[in-house]
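Q: Could you fold this chain for me?
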Amino acid sequence: MSCLFCKIIAGEIPTNPVYQDEVCVAFNDISPQAPRHILVVPREHFASLAEADEKHEAIIGHLMRKCAAIANQEGFGADGFRTVINTGKHAQQSVPHLHVHLLGGKEMNWNPA
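A: Sure. Below is the predicted structure, expressed as structure tokens.
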């Protein structure tokens, strides 16, 4: 197993989860891009949204719902937060294991829409 996130999920690399359940683990990003930057990672390994199929729909939905719950749990949900899923090298996906960046704690200046 060479996947960084799989090693974290397996306990081979220590982390302090802010949330975990049978589907996902959430922990603080080691290179935060906002005052609050949490990664929400499914326990099941699949590289990206590009590799996801119908069997992953429930997992992806679970991750997104948990992002809102975690933002509220961590105290930044009421002011707003951003969720980002990078897919592939042009999107700067650095770990080939699907994950959601949950960003908050400040007003986001860049409007991607």
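A (continued): The radius of gyration is 14 Å.
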